[in-house]
Amino acid sequence: MNSKDKKAIVMLLDNIELRSKHTIAELQLLVRQIDSIKELIHRNDVQQPNYEQIKELVQNETPSPRPTSPNDLIRREEVITMTGLSRSTIYTLMKNSEFPLSIERSVAWRRGDIQNWIINKIASKNERVNK
Question: Among 30, 48, 64, 127, which residue's beta carbon has the most beta carbons within 10 A?
């Protein structure tokens, strides 16, 4: 297996990890996929598995993702995953009116608010770089 295949496999596994929503059924599917990939990698066949074989294996077992809406309410852990910010940084930015506020009496945000915040941060950074 060459380094390109290894990098592609790692990216594919990262993608699988991100799609998992931590329900029992999804985690069981994730475990089966990882076990299948390990089996392919460790098999003593003459032919080593490549990225395309693994991609096909994963696509055959992966259910299509649920559609998302900007009005979906998402919990703190997903916001942390989406933004890469820590919990304390999120609350500090909220306090300083630099981050969307969570829904009152709930630790949840509108998906669209978080997506817009990320887009604005990227645009702001690009403006600074292009000056």
Answer: 30
Cα–Cα distance between 39 and 22 in angstroms, integer?
23
The alpha carbon torsion through 58, 24, 20, 119 (nearest 10 deg) reads 150
Segment of 4-8, 64-68, 71-75, 125-129 carrying the highest mean pLDDT? 71-75
* Nearest residue to 30 (alpha-carbon basis) of 40, 39, 19: 19
In the chain the first and final C-alpha atoms are separated, in Å, by 44
Please tell me which residue, 47 or 102, carries the higher pLDDT value: 102
Alpha-carbon distance of 103 to 113, in angstroms, equals 11
